[in-house]
């Protein structure tokens, strides 16, 4: 029996929220609130319809190209579809053709999307062994402990349909990370998770407790203090910080959509703010999104204390995954990104590779010109 034809059209915020409400894992970048956060982009929730039945949703962001009324369309970590069923059925084009037609009708000259479909996993012990081996430089050098048939099938179908991954710069993709680090929480207690931490993490958590570090949740009034610490972290670690208005807008939009969509955590020691983080949550998936720490009082281990509190809260909320977000694929000791993997590895979690982001040029001339413009903007 032939599957029914699909149509893609704009939907309301209410339809979008209702569609993701009961899903266990939808990226926070695919919530209506994220469209409000990204003020430099025009946002549009869209739905896939089989007749009158809504069978999939996505948040499309549009950025206008310079001097022309044409747009680059972007679906970060989405759309939210039955990717396992699509990969198994081999009917990707049935789903993507109406999407491309829709964004083209909106003036899009190119489209990027990043399905949250896992292709490979590397277990904690495998990563530890790889980091200890001087001949291993990248994750691709290490056989994965798990490889998914759905991820491989989807990658083949995207390639066959003319989609291509965007360029990689300095170890990270131009958009959202392809490799992330996740700590599984399903059916695990606090004690189970704590036993999975390495000795250094457990020691640092105890050190923070003994030093009297306290971790509390903050509100909108605490964003200036968080941002001051975040700016200090940016200067120390050499990255460009986002302005305070970005976090204020993020707080306003995301907490208005759902009270627990975004949380702010503050770690204090003797009245001094020593670490601060934000955690986002959709369904049973929690993400560590932004972090900051003071240069002073590093010895009281505020960063470990605040991470442990977020993990404990994620367990209490019934989350299945605590996501520490992006890592690069580097395992080389002399690469500065390797320290990030080592820190996250201490939680006992594992590395995950997604299908990643894929681009489809609709107008190759405009797509190439816009790509060059974005690279020059840095």
Automatic annotation (TrEMBL):
GO molecular function, one term: aminoacyltransferase activity
Xref: Pfam families: FemAB
Alphabetical GO biological process terms: cell wall organization; peptidoglycan biosynthetic process; regulation of cell shape
Keyword Acyltransferase: yes
Transferase among keywords: yes
Keywords, ordered alphabetically: Acyltransferase, Cell shape, Cell wall biogenesis/degradation, Peptidoglycan synthesis, Transferase
Coiled coil stretches, renumbered: none
PANTHER family, per the entry: LIPID II:GLYCINE GLYCYLTRANSFERASE
Membership in a protein family: Belongs to the FemABX family.
Protein name (database record): Peptidoglycan bridge formation glycyltransferase FemA/FemB family protein
Organism of provenance: Jiangella asiatica
């Amino acid at each position: 029996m032939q599957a029914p034809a699909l149509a893609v059209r704009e939907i309301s915020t209410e339809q979008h929220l209702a569609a993701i409400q009961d899903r266990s894992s939808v990226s926070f970048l695919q919530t209506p609130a994220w469209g409000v956060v990204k003020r430099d982009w025009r946002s549009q929730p869209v739905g896939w319809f089989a007749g009158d039945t809504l069978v999939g949703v996505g948040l499309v962001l549009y950025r206008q190209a310079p001097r022309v009324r044409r747009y680059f369309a972007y679906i970060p970590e989405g759309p939210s579809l039955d990717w396992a069923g699509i990969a198994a059925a081999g009917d990707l084009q049935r789903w993507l053709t109406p999407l491309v037609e829709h964004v083209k009708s909106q003036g899009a000259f190119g489209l990027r999307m990043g399905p949250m479909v896992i292709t490979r996993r590397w277990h904690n012990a495998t990563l530890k062994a790889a980091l200890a081996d001087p001949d291993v430089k990248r994750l691709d050098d290490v056989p994965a402990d798990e490889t998914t048939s759905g991820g491989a099938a989807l990658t083949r179908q995207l390639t066959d349909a003319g989609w291509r991954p965007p360029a990689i710069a300095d170890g990270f993709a131009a958009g959202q990370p392809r490799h992330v680090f996740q700590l599984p929480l399903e059916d695990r207690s606090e004690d189970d998770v704590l036993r999975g931490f390495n000795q250094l993490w457990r020691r640092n958590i105890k050190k923070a407790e003994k030093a009297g570090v306290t971790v509390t949740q903050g509100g909108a009034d605490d964003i200036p203090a968080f941002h001051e610490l975040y700016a200090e972290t940016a200067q120390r670690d050499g990255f460009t910080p986002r302005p305070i208005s970005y976090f204020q807008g993020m707080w306003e939009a995301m907490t208005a959509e759902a009270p627990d969509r975004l949380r702010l955590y503050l770690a204090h020691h003797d009245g001094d703010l020593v670490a601060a983080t934000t955690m986002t949550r959709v369904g049973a998936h929690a993400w560590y999104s932004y972090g900051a720490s003071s240069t002073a009082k590093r010895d009281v281990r505020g960063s470990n204390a605040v991470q442990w509190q977020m993990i404990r809260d994620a367990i209490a909320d019934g989350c299945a995954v605590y996501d520490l977000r992006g890592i690069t694929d580097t395992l080389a000791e002399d690469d500065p990104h390797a320290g990030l993997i080592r820190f996250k590895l201490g939680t006992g979690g594992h590395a995950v590779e997604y299908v990643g982001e894929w681009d489809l040029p609709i107008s190759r001339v405009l797509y190439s010109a816009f790509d060059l413009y974005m690279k020059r903007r840095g």
